[in-house]
Write a structure and sequence with these properties.
By secondary structure, this protein is of the alpha+beta class. Among the domains are: about 1-105, DnaJ domain (Helix Hairpins, Orthogonal Bundle), CATH 1.10.287.110; about 255-330, Sandwich (HSP40/DNAj peptide-binding domain), CATH 2.60.260. The chain contains eight helices and 15 strands. It has a four-stranded mixed β-sheet. α2 packs antiparallel against α3 and α3 (about 40-60) packs across α5 (about 85-100). The radius of gyration is 33 Å and the shape is elongated. The two termini are about 55 Å apart.
């Protein structure tokens, strides 16, 4: 898959372009490449979509700032042309300039869906491996109970906008070109509140603290994201709410590190156990115990891998491995008797060392 072109390059703009420069550049690109002017030309349609996506980012102050700082990666997760119905986004922006080609005035698509919310939740390694439920506390607008989110006083209804006739858009002609813009009376809603709800003052939403229970599946890792449908901001006039996105942050663990599906830990053993071999018991974060067989002659820093004892896959299809890094502990204080035994051990090893070298030569 080819990488996206720089948005400034797409519209032929310098990075210090003014909002007016951006609008003019997009208008020219859109007129030139619109599919209705280039029927059957897939490349023109692709250029039209590319220009509209660039305009959608560069005309938004916040998105442009993130794009200038981080490039395309800075737009991930904040909502953009890639979210939802892409071509509908393109057509809406184009209609704002020109009223559309060939199709006449586009009617509004209805009340807008609510915005998404993004939060972060820190989990311990144990909770991430076993899975858990957490309450996420949000302070956000919620649909007004008294007016059911309409903004109109209970017992009354919103009225069609007299300026746009309920279309949410008004059009004006300049020469041979018809320009369409958002209705200034109803702000594109297509309807107005004559008698506002006393509780929400006509906004259709009130701010409240609410708790959302989020299920974190066993095996989830830091940097992953969960989507909780319908728990974002409320939609306008009773439209569907947005979604809640929860970014997982994994807290550091004293004994274990996680590398994908693998768990890494260090096992300190004595010099004697390293030379003779031994069995080490590892207590895993999920309260299970693993017996790790340490072969005789293991070297400091060697890694013993135990398959199937790492983190579980989120889909339940198996587990990673437990990676045990061997640390040989050297005693700091030896008794005279222990020192004598080590000297005798050293002499004994030295006697057999030449024979061992000759055997391998």
């Amino acid at each position: 898959m080819s990488e996206k072109r720089d948005f400034y390059e797409v519209l032929g703009l310098a990075r210090d372009a003014t909002p007016d420069d951006i609008r003019k550049a997009y208008r020219q690109a859109a007129l030139k490449n619109h599919p209705d002017r280039n029927p059957g030309d897939a490349s023109a349609e692709a250029r039209f979509k590319e220009a509209t996506e660039a305009y959608q980012v560069l005309s938004d102050e916040e998105k442009r700032s993130r794009y200038d700082q981080f490039g395309h990666a800075g737009l991930e997760g904040i909502g953009g042309a890639a979210d939802g119905d892409i071509f509908s986004h393109f057509q809406d922006i184009f209609s704002e300039f020109f009223g559309g080609f060939g199709g006449g005035q586009r009617r509004r698509r209805g009340p807008a869906r609510g915005q998404d919310i993004r939060v972060q939740q820190r989990l311990s390694l144990r909770d991430a491996l076993l899975g858990c439920k957490r309450e996420v506390v949000l302070r956000t607008p919620v649909a007004c109970d008294d007016c059911s989110g309409s903004g109109a006083k209970p017992g009354t209804k919103r009225k069609p906008c007299g300026t746009c006739g309920g279309a949410g858009q008004v059009s004006t002609s300049r020469g041979f070109v018809m320009f369409t813009q958002t209705c200034p009376e109803c702000s594109g809603e297509g309807s107005v509140v004559k008698t506002p709800c006393a509780t929400c003052k006509g906004f259709g939403a009130v701010e409240k603290t609410r708790k959302v229970v989020v299920n974190f599946p066993a095996g989830i890792d830091g940097g992953q994201r969960l989507r909780v449908p319908g728990q974002g901001m409320p939609g306008a006039q009773g439209a569907p709410p947005g979604d809640l996105y929860v970014d997982v942050d994994l807290a550091a663990d004293e004994r274990f590190e996680r590398d994908g599906l693998d768990l890494i830990t260090r096992a300190p053993i004595s010099f004697a156990d390293a030379a003779l071999g031994s069995t080490v018991k590892i207590d895993l974060p999920d309260d299970t115990v693993v017996d790790v067989e340490v072969p005789a002659g293991v070297q400091p820093g060697e890694v013993i891998s135990v398959k199937g004892k790492g983190a579980p896959r989120i889909d339940g299809r198996g587990r990673g491995a437990l990676q045990v890094v061997i640390q040989v502990e050297v005693p700091r204080n030896l008794s005279p008797a222990a020192q004598e035994l080590l000297r005798r051990f050293q002499d004994e090893v030295a006697k057999h060392q030449p024979a061992a070298k000759a055997a391998t030569a």
